[in-house]
Amino acid sequence: MRSEGIIAMSYLKQFPEIENEIIKCIKCGNCQAVCPLYQETKTEDMVARGKVHLAAAVLKGVLKPTKDLTRIFTTCLICKACAGSCPSGVAPDKIVLAARVMLAKERSLPLAKKLLFKCLAQPTLFKAGMAIGAKTQDLFFKRSEDSMNIRYPVSGLELRRVMPVLADKPFLLNLPAINKVTDPRSKVAFFSGCTTNFIYPNTGQAFLTVMAHNNIEVVVPKKQHCCGTPVLLHGDTATTMDIAKSQVAIFSQCDVDALVTVCGTCGEAFKKHYPELLKDVPEYSEKAAILAKKVYDFSQLLVNLQPLNKENLGVVNKTVTYHQPCHVGRGIGAVQEPLKIIKTIPGLKFNPLKQPNRCCGGAGSFSLTHYDLSYKILKRKLADIASTTAATVITACGSCRMQLSDGLAQEKMSQPVRHLVELLAESYQNFHDDL
Ligand code: SF4
Ligand code: SF4
């Protein structure tokens, strides 16, 4: 039998930096005002302050890892709103993650998740699974235009949830490895991410259109695969390290000025998670650190590194609002850049949200596993959207797009949700159509 002392010894030793984070918390409770979960539940175990102190007890071995503790630590959006408003500079998301790692080791993840994560780490298997999914999705889902509902009850899945359709053909399939332009001013590598590759290939195509209009050559390594963030957020660091090594090996071979993403979660994996996970692995640590310095959201690339070509922008007659994805804003720091791009597009009327950076409640699989709670958070975002009277919702993350699309469909709101890069590509396209 494992004693509490052994748990304490092993886990605090494994997370020395987390112990330092925990000590910084002064229990002021400022995080209550910004935590979307606390605002819905009003319970201390849902907010950062409660979680920080529970994590301390679990990691010290004062509390044994139980099913209830697993429930508490899996109920967090990792939206980082608490970290952004903490006067002591605590990073509660990192503490929650450490607790998840410990709980995954002590209590083991459900078999279905373990199998899914192993599959995510095997790109060939994952791609084959997605190809089968795309061919057979009509057997399990009822389609209506570009979305669908599950046909049969599945434990843990909400029947009314509107899901996106898997693309017939992944974005990366048959795409040239180098997308050349005449007289390039820069050369970048593109990491598409799973939602762009398998669900929203138009986002990837729009990215290439925008790069071509900006004279930027795009290298698209064909072996790229899932960034591993869903695996990491469940506490499976061993599988995430395998994924990180593979991605670092693939992208280190590209001789490029920048590594560009259209998803903050993927960007954060390269910018923050991989260097941290691989810092003690000699073969990969330096390469991961070099790559991390080259990571840009597409908006950061076009505002900070290679200024946007404004000559060929055409009019887009739309009223839009913008939802800032947590991992784009607080994750990789693209806050002003998307707004600058929106304000550059001719004809666009921008009606901002009152709380653009408030989490939409999607948080990857959180919206699947905690539908009702996730929906309460989403409803506040939908009310904010409605108050803007915008006809189109713009965001910069596939996962937020899925969540917002579900909410808008549930509330019978007609606004389409689009990725910002698609709007920019439309502007370039309109310039040519108007000639
Ligand atoms: S996590 Fe930060 S904001 Fe929350 S109670 Fe601790 S010190 Fe205060
Ligand atoms: S990461 Fe988000 S959901 Fe989790 S405790 Fe912090 S504010 Fe609340």
Q: Which segments are poorly predicted (pLDDT under 50) over 5 or more consecutive residues?
A: 1-9
CATH topological fold name of the domain at 319-433? Rossmann fold
**Roughly how many Å apart are the termini?**
77 Å
Ligand types: iron/sulfur cluster
Report helical residue fraction: 40-55%
Strand content: 5-15%
Radius of gyration: 22 Å
Task: State the CATH class of the domain at 319-433.
Answer: Alpha Beta
**CATH architecture verdict of the domain at 319-433:** 3-Layer(aba) Sandwich
User: What order do the strands of the largest sheet run in, or round the barrel if closed?
Assistant: 4-6-5-7-8
Give the helix/strand class: alpha/beta
Major beta sheet summary: 5 strands, mixed
- Give the strand tally: 12
How many helices? 22
Mean pLDDT: 91
Shape: globular
Task: Please provide a written account of the structure.
This protein is of the alpha/beta class and 435 residues long. It has helices at residues 4-14, 16-24, 36-41, 48-60, 67-74, 81-85, 92-107, 111-120, 123-140, 194-199, 201-213, 229-233, 237-252, 264-277, 282-292, 298-305, 326-331, 336-344, 366-369, 371-388, 398-410, 420-433, and strands spanning 141-144, 147-150, 162-164, 178-179, 186-191, 216-219, 258-261, 295-297, 319-322, 349-350, 392-395, 417-419. Among the domains are: 4-107, Alpha-helical ferredoxin (Fumarate Reductase Iron-sulfur Protein, Chain B, domain 2), CATH 1.10.1060.10; 319-433, 3-Layer(aba) Sandwich (Rossmann fold), CATH 3.40.50. The chain is built from 22 helices and twelve strands. The chain has a five-stranded mixed beta sheet, with helices on both faces. A four-stranded parallel beta sheet has the order 10-9-11-12, with helices on both faces. Helix 11 (201-213) crosses helix 22 (420-433), helix 16 (298-305) crosses helix 18 and helix 20 (371-388) packs across helix 21. The termini are far apart. Mean pLDDT is 91; it is low at 1-9. The chain binds iron/sulfur cluster (2 copies).
